[in-house]
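Researcher: I've been going back and forth with a colleague about how Amine oxidase domain-containing protein might be arranged in three dimensions. Neither of us has a model we trust, so I'd like an independent prediction. The organism is Exaiptasia diaphana, in case that matters for your notes. Sequence below.
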Amino acid sequence: DKKSPIPARVGLSLMGWKPKTQAEYALEYLEVDFENAKNAELTPFQGIIEKGKDFFLTDERGMWSIYEELYTSFKDKIKLNTTVTGIKYNSSMVEVTTSDGEVYTADYALCTFSTGVLASDMVTFTPPLPEWKQEAILTMPMAVYTTIYVKFPTKFWDDKEIILYAGPTRQSIAVFQDLQRPGIYPNNSGLLLITVTGDEGRRIEKQSLEDTKAEMFKMLKGVYGPNISEPTDIYSPRWTQNKFVRGCYSEGTVGMTSKTFENLAKNLGNLYFSGEANNEEWYSYMQGAYFTGENQAKSIVKANHCKEKPQNCTVSGTDSFRACSPVVSTTIMSIWLLQMFIG
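Model: Here is an independent structure prediction for Amine oxidase domain-containing protein. You can compare it with whatever you and your colleague have in mind.
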């Protein structure tokens, strides 16, 4: 696949899809914007292929319950409510400075910041991240995918899992999801999920939840009439306003290639990087973060094993650890947004 990357708009046009009506743009929104968090002009054509089945999790124990067994053994070593402000790295150690002036030193560190944080000035890297690393980070910016859960005393919307709202402009198109349908939440949940993306999502996330609730109510009255019940509650995560994440998940821009993911994951001395953005197959997905974290942890263990027993390693350029036999365990110290693996 040596062709130059093209926007989805170009690829879809070449295939004969050229929307003209608002209804057609709404259908495109469902297949492109709703899946990729940005419009066809900004989405890479190779990125619109579905990766598999999506699941809607409603388990009251929350997502962390899935990973509880992974961190319970070192839970007492996890330092929370601490912001990393500086990372100094070389080929023999990593030094992390926090906002309260504490300094942590380790043989190796695994950086799990989002690309939004890496692209900001929130953390000072010494030496600065090389240009090839910065380019890869900027090629995988954080997406604006705004989910708005609105609760009503009674259901008035269509009895369909997906409801498309073709607003008066392309920017006002939204997707409604009926969360009162059997098998999703308990009966009579009264929940309607509204999803918007891109600039519209960014605008909405900047306003108060009360303003958003009033705006959603007004929009729904325009669709279902003035006599619908008023919302009783609202919840929206507003990820773009969280400075420790700065978006919902990474979503590649036109120009991303396999080299982008290779450079994102490439270590700088003893500083390693992981996260969903680093996984070419599963970027934007939770399993992408899991897989890259696991792979990089193994790489760190191998590197440490080679450091302790160099006679067991076959040197191959600067990545001599890749020739080492695997070691299956290490000790982990976790700091806010940064996991430090100490050999």
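Researcher: What would you highlight for our discussion?
Model: I'd start with this: The CA atoms of residues 90 and 339 lie 17 Å apart. After that, consider the following. The longest strand covers residues 145-151.
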